[in-house]
Amino acid sequence: MHSEQIVKQYLNELKLQISDILNIDQEKFFKKQAGQSELILISRNVGKINKRNTEQQRTIVVTSENLYNIDKKSIKRKIQIQKIFGVTVSRSSFEFILHVPSETDYHYKSQENRDIILYYLSIVLKLNNKDGLKIYLVDQEDLQQFCLHQKTSDLQKQMVLHPKSKLLFLYPHDFQLQYINMQNQPTKSLNINHKITVLFVNDKLKFRVKLEDFSKNAIINQGSLTKLFLLSLKTDRQKVLVLKTIRSSDIDVDLMEFFLKNYEIEPFNEQLELCIRQTDLIHFFFKFVKGGDLFAHLQNIGTFTENQAKYIIAQVGMALQSIHEKGITYGDLKPENILIDEQGYIQLTDFGYGKLRVYQEYKKQQNINFSVEYASPEYLKFGDLTRMSDWYSMGILLYELLVGISPFYHLNTEIAIKLICQGELHFPKGTTITNECKDLISKLLQQDSSTRIGFSNDFKEIQAHPWFQEIEWIELKQKKKELPYIPNIIEGTLIQEQYIKLEQLCDDERGWY
């Protein structure tokens, strides 16, 4: 038995909550038979299939100690968690069987609730020190042949009904991805090129993922390695995502998978919803941001006011801080890689995810596609890319937001590199920029990275600069501040044409295979 605190703490580690959506915990008939220490984890309606293959409405309740089969307000069966041997799951339908060797099996069906019930069952088994949730995965739609409806003392008679397929073990910490990928295993009739492996799902309660679920609608932008596609979910056209696909040969897959396992949503970083590997391709699905990128806004208005730029830079700084705290150098800061949502809040994009730069101070890094205008002197001279290179790029960004052009811009790339390495900073006459702002830009653009602001204490040192004195950092991070720059978003319109330009797809770009 486990205390409520232990159960809730474990759910919190898995980033889950108790899911008693039918409020069974409040029912008197349940309280009479449940133990005082028993805690409901999940309650869901399902269809129970009897031996005559007739479906009946039932409720399954999984608690910290038992599984209940309920008919309306009557508990028909109470099974101790330890007595559950495992489950048989159909890949072709939504049927499943609970195998209980010392009693009778239970044959159920539920399109909406099967997978989440099994997930929570794996959690309770773990809490009761069982060796994972045992699963037989079969292709048959009808599972009647695998179910023992009558109690027998002959355990061998029951076990012989179990499928001849391999018995798999699933554990709560990686249940979702293992379960999804089990469902996606190619059958003998399916071409191996169609095989996909799901590497990441942001929604903890999503258990079915297929590329065919999504439609490619248009090209939304051209990235450094690939085109960006606007997608919609076939079953819900209002669910819109952005797709970026890159070849696995172009990235460090091990580093990418490490990042995905430790992925956390950050307030100012682009939100990854899904990542799928398809043979030699990696598909990234991102949340769609209506305001487009900062470059489009800069082109649209020319320059930002100093107050507008201050709040943009403050958010960029916090985004870079969260990246640096994970031991990563962002390495490609520029207006094209900064998205703006409807409220004016920014999101950094184009991490590459496979070209993540795990930084060591002054260690040379390879294969970085830095935009020359935003490249730091130490990178151009020596190939050194560290977190200080990010702060240099932020100084270039601040200058460009206020002036409309980067300080060392030149059409000739070789001359631009020479200007950056010389580092002679000038502010154009007629541009109103406060002394505090000029001082911060100058300190961010120091040639020697060891004297650049941020070297001693990263963004905390930059936050303390007088130019940021009025910023309420907690309020800004929680997105409770009404910002001085808000995109002109037309309500009810998905694509804002002044910020986002769509290109039509050719026939070859519409498919997945």
TrEMBL record:
<keyword id="KW-0723">Serine/threonine-protein kinase</keyword>
<dbReference type="GO" id="GO:0016459">
    <property type="term" value="C:myosin complex"/>
</dbReference>
<keyword id="KW-0547">Nucleotide-binding</keyword>
<dbReference type="InterPro" id="IPR000719">
    <property type="entry name" value="Prot_kinase_dom"/>
</dbReference>
<dbReference type="InterPro" id="IPR000961">
    <property type="entry name" value="AGC-kinase_C"/>
</dbReference>
<dbReference type="InterPro" id="IPR008271">
    <property type="entry name" value="Ser/Thr_kinase_AS"/>
</dbReference>
<dbReference type="InterPro" id="IPR010926">
    <property type="entry name" value="Myosin_TH1"/>
</dbReference>
<keyword id="KW-0418">Kinase</keyword>
<dbReference type="Pfam" id="PF06017">
    <property type="entry name" value="Myosin_TH1"/>
</dbReference>
<dbReference type="GO" id="GO:0005524">
    <property type="term" value="F:ATP binding"/>
</dbReference>
<keyword id="KW-0808">Transferase</keyword>
<dbReference type="GO" id="GO:0004674">
    <property type="term" value="F:protein serine/threonine kinase activity"/>
</dbReference>
<keyword id="KW-0067">ATP-binding</keyword>
<feature type="domain" description="Protein kinase">
    <location>
        <begin position="214"/>
        <end position="468"/>
    </location>
</feature>
<dbReference type="GO" id="GO:0003774">
    <property type="term" value="F:cytoskeletal motor activity"/>
</dbReference>
<protein>
    <recommendedName>
        <fullName>Protein kinase domain-containing protein</fullName>
    </recommendedName>
</protein>
<feature type="domain" description="AGC-kinase C-terminal">
    <location>
        <begin position="469"/>
        <end position="513"/>
    </location>
</feature>
<dbReference type="Pfam" id="PF00069">
    <property type="entry name" value="Pkinase"/>
</dbReference>
